[in-house]
Amino acid sequence: MLDNREIAWLICLVAGGSLLAWRTGAAKGLGRLLPPLLSRPVLSILGIAASYIALCVGLLSLASFWQWSDLKTTLFWAGGFALLALFNFQKIEAGGAFVRAVLLESVGINAFLSFITASHTFGLWLELALTGSLILLGLTYAVAERDERLTSAKNFASVLFAALALLQLANSGYHIVTGLRSFATLDTAREFFVPIILTLMFLPFLYGLYVYTVYERAVAVFRQTTSDPLLRAGILRKLVFGFGLDTAGLEKWRRHTGLFPPEIPTDVDSSVAEIRAARRRERQPYRVEPAYGWLPNHATRFLASAGLPTNDYHRGYDGWSASSRYRELGHDLLPNNLAYYVDGDQFVVSQLKVMLNINTPTSSSEAYESFFETVRLLARSAVPGIANFEGEISLISSGAPQLLNGYELSLKRRDWSGGIKGGHDLVFTIRIATAPTNCAAP
Length: 442
Prior knowledge:
By secondary structure, the chain is of the alpha+beta class. 60% of the residues lie in helices and 12% in strands. It has 17 helices and 8 strands. It has helices at 4-24, 26-37, 40-62, 71-87, 96-107, 109-117, 124-145, 151-178, 180-183, 186-225, 229-232, 235-243, 247-259, 265-283, 296-299, 364-382, 390-396; strands at 314-316, 319-323, 327-329, 336-344, 349-358, 402-404, 407-415, 424-432. Strands 1, 2, 3, 4, 5, 6, 7 and 8 form an 8-stranded antiparallel β-sheet that branches. Strand 1 (314-316) and strand 2 form a beta hairpin. The radius of gyration is 29 Å and the shape is globular.
């Protein structure tokens, strides 16, 4: 049976959703959204997921760890974590970080306090009042967080939210202490651990779904861009044997064949072999002397702490490279931005570059500050022996390249001839100045 808090949340959500749909006309939008959600692929995935959950429940039941009294807990878990995870299964691409976040959410202190708080409830009318208040405070906090002028409202909402949560926790704590024997039972422990065990059992399903969609996307794109039946024949088998569970390598291959479309069947085998070799170098990089340049695995992470991580190091039309996304500076309509680029060959990065685009000249001083802070970080990370870079910055700002410990550092400004008045870019470059001539494969 639903307790008073669950009934209160259900009433508030239904009432709030109905009011929102009536005032904003969202019902029509929901009518347009339902057909895709009820499409055959979505229903198939939901059906397979439900069958998998039923299998997990059956296994737990055989082990006497799940009983019918856990049905409500299981349904809430399925409608909460499992359903949301299905629509966000791409997050499993983060690998270990995703698993750690899920486990922390499942067994962390917040999960424990939520379980304790939900163990006892107030009367229905008081729960309705508390639930409505918590929803309003949450909306107030979300709105105030977007505007610095509403900081006091955000802090006030946080204090009230914490006070109401402590009230619920204190109520549960009081009932637990006064009725410890009825709380400290095997049923209570099972109710706490069943969602955790189901979460652990559901992770392999999410990973399998992610791997399947990556393969499906790669094969579909290849077949759409390749009309030759000889090239399309057996492509899934080649990819499965070539990459297995290496979804990052498979995505790398998909982009590679988009840049360099195979023309004969052996080109497909060669592309798979090239990407597999690149993935082996990423996992077990060669040792590179500083005189040759930087390891790709290192160079692509030089500015990760500055919010400029790059994509993977890959072969393109102009050689091997990687680049970051633009990092916006400020909140202007057309903000200034930073980007980071690395270039070289398949074994060694020989050039690093930071580019600042001034799209809003009135905010250029703040952008310059961020740019030179990033430049200092890159120089300290990439050039051995740099202790103080302030003197070098003043030298390279003159426009002439400077040599430092075998590296050439330069800073160039390019004013844009059209478009934004006063718009320009700054490019800071570090390249190998005295690399040996025989810098083939290490």
